[in-house]
Specification:
The complex is a heterodimer of chains A (156) and B (250).
Chain A: H1 9-16, E1 20-21, E2 24-28, E3 35-40, E4 45-50, H2 60-72, E5 79-84, H3 97-107, E6 109-111, E7 127-131, E8 139-144, E9 150-154
Parallel strand pairs in A: 4-5, 6-9
Antiparallel strand pairs in A: 1-2, 3-4, 7-8, 8-9
Chain B: H1 9-30, H2 39-64, H3 70-76, H4 86-89, H5 95-114, H6 122-150, H7 153-173, H8 180-185, H9 197-208, H10 231-238, H11 240-244
Chain lengths: 156, 250
């Protein structure tokens, strides 16, 4: 009988890393800080725990489905269970430097850390808040004081 | 991993009142999408409504033990099985009423979540932590807008008129809920919600000035089993799409 080869946790991470946020194609949900925990048991059942940006985010089922599909393709994976956790609470502190750079360059989106001033992704000048609520629940709207670019800002 | 609920029926009933309030408040806010007086308010009401629906989902999941059953549970229930309060059931047709309800409700909501902070049920501690973080935005929005509008005499008189109409409904929000005593004795919550009412009233009078004390009499003993006369219209509206195909997975 053949010995069943199971993927490593690192292999699963790599697979999940290919899943991007529906709002931001090409930006990995891992870099956005959604992935909390991955486990695999001896029969190839994978348990993935994610945390949502906001409790009412309508994209959760889409993201969970994408994560399931990406993981199921790994040889040795028998079943995948994706759970959204209520704790810990997501924060922009979980967003990696790579994702911040991509958000700025590809989407003109800034990331606000606590109450610090938000920098314009185009000209690096200071921005001013225009609206605390933006096109989705996790974004506010800023306007650059110099180039007048409207800057969507990912925030807690 | 899934947390197995050890909540008793009376405590579930108690949580259901909160979930129903949150769900209907979220639904009411979403009515302003596309027709709010200006774009920023359109987005704010959409986002705030989305949060309240999210909070309701977290609580319903806990009550039902399975998030996939939420839609069927919410939309197939009989009116008498709801545990929502008058404040979230009444259909406010005017913008100033919707805005004052948002102010009144969100100035009361964090006080409600605070009671779960040290809950004996760990999942409720997590949920309250998440909700309280989101609620800080709701209060900031409500305060900033109301503060601006109060500086204009004509706006102020409209807001004050709306407020007098809404305060009796806020009293219903704070009224004792079925199962509350069980929730307190098992330390699911740290106290009675109506004991937080003076905190809310202080917030109110700090913002709007001292109001006629007669407005604040009469928190009823038994509520939440009766429906507001607007409920049927609201209920039919929110389940209109669901009823097109009750078996569909959304």
């Amino acid at each position: 009988m053949k010995v069943k080869v199971l993927p490593s946790i690192q292999d699963i991470h790599t697979a999940i890393n290919t899943v991007s946020d529906p709002e931001y194609p090409e930006i990995s949900i891992v870099d956005l800080g959604f992935l909390e925990n991955v486990e695999i048991n001896e029969v190839g059942e994978v348990f993935i725990e994610l945390i949502p940006t906001f409790s009412g985010c309508p994209a959760l089922e889409t993201i969970a489905q994408d994560v399931r599909e990406a993981t199921e393709q790994l040889p040795g994976v028998h079943a995948v269970e994706v759970t959204w956790l209520n704790s810990p609470v997501w924060s922009v502190k979980r967003v990696t430097e790579k994702a911040k750079k991509d958000l700025a360059e590809k989407f003109t989106v800034a990331v606000q850390i606590q109450n610090k001033k938000v920098e314009c992704p185009r000209c690096q000048s200071e921005t001013n808040i225009k609206s605390h609520f933006g096109p989705s629940r996790c974004r506010s709207i800023h306007v650059c004081s110099k180039c007048h670019e409207v800057v969507e800002t990912l925030r807690d | 991993m899934m947390v197995k609920s050890t909540l008793t029926s009376p405590i579930k009933e108690y949580l259901l009142a909160f979930a129903d309030d949150e769900h209907l408040m979220g639904q009411q806010h979403t009515e302003w999408i596309g027709i709010a007086p200006f774009l920023e308010e359109d987005m704010a009401f959409a986002s705030i409504g989305q949060d309240e629906l999210g909070h309701a989902s977290m609580l319903y999941s806990l009550v039902l033990g399975d998030s996939s059953e939420i839609d069927g549970f919410v939309f197939n229930r009989k009116p008498e099985e709801w545990r929502s309060c008058q404040l979230v059931e009444s259909n406010h047709r005017e913008w100033e009423e919707a805005l004052m309800r948002h102010w009144c409700y969100d100035m009361a909501e964090d006080l409600r979540w605070e009671l779960f902070r040290k809950s004996s049920h760990p999942e409720l501690v997590s949920i309250s932590e998440r909700a309280l973080k989101e609620e800080a935005y709701h209060r900031r929005h409500a305060e900033a807008l109301v503060e601006n509008l109060l500086s204009v005499p004509s706006s102020k008189s409209r807001l004050m008129e709306a407020l007098e109409k809404i305060i009796p409904e806020v009293l219903d929000l704070f009224s004792p809920m079925p199962g509350e005593e069980d929730a307190i004795s098992s330390e699911v919550v740290s106290g009675k919600y109506c004991d937080m009412f003076p905190v809310w009233r202080t917030r109110l009078e700090n913002r709007f000035g001292v109001l006629d004390p007669d407005l604040f009499t009469g928190i009823d003993d038994v509520t939440r089993t009766r429906r507001h006369s607007d409920f049927d219209v609201l209920f039919n509206r929110i389940r209109e799409v669901f009823l097109l195909d009750p078996e569909a997975t959304w």
